Description:
Blueprint: H1 3-17, E1 20-24, H2 33-45, E2 50-53, H3 59-72, E3 77-80, H4 84-93, E4 97-107, H5 113-120, E5 124-128, E6 145-148, H6 156-167
Parallel strand pairs: 1-2, 1-5, 2-3, 4-5, 4-6
Helix pairs in contact: 2-3, 2-6
The protein binds S-adenosylmethionine.
Amino acid sequence: MEDSKQNARAHERHKRTQEVFVLRWGHRPQRDVRLTTHVALTARALGASGFTLSDVTDQKIKETMEKVSRNWGGTFLFKMGTSWKHAVDSWKIKGGSVVHLTAYGENIQTSDVLKRIHALKKDVLVVVGSQKVPQDFFSIEVSDFNVSIGNQPHSECAALAIFLDRFFEGEELATVFEEARIRIIPQERGKRTNVED
Ligand code: SAM
């Protein structure tokens, strides 16, 4: 079997055992549209099954994500407007665990936190902030794990990308998205897709 097919199947196995959803808290429609869109695109491209924009709605981001999924395939779910508390509570009621990404958490490289997240075998809701998050996010009532991607402050987009890549052990990068209108045919140079110019 080709390597890419093997990797895609390995990723499917992970997805079947532990699905990942992303919750973005603190989106400010006037200033965060581009960054929040990038967080959602990162979630989709790196193996998450869906994304919740909590507490606010932003039609522009919804339309962008729907267009991306129409063109590039897959079954990524986009939700918005639900309060973060409701999203977290209903995720937990359904048996999932919650991972809050924060520079103050257990370091993904120097602790065994990822091993413990995998060992639970529960679906994972990854929470990322924007502005300073409410103190509650650090509590056991909200987050089963507070995870840092290094202990320096950086970006929700970078933190999410690294978390997902570690969580799926790189296998998500070989995923073939179903029912894509556009597929990239990787090249050493230049740009090639299945769509004729
Ligand atoms: N000043 C904010 C604070 O103290 O929470 C920093 C916000 S940071 C720009 C936005 C989000 O990026 C954070 O809420 C967190 O989810 C994520 N983030 C930033 N650096 C991180 C790190 N080193 N590890 C994990 N997540 C991080």
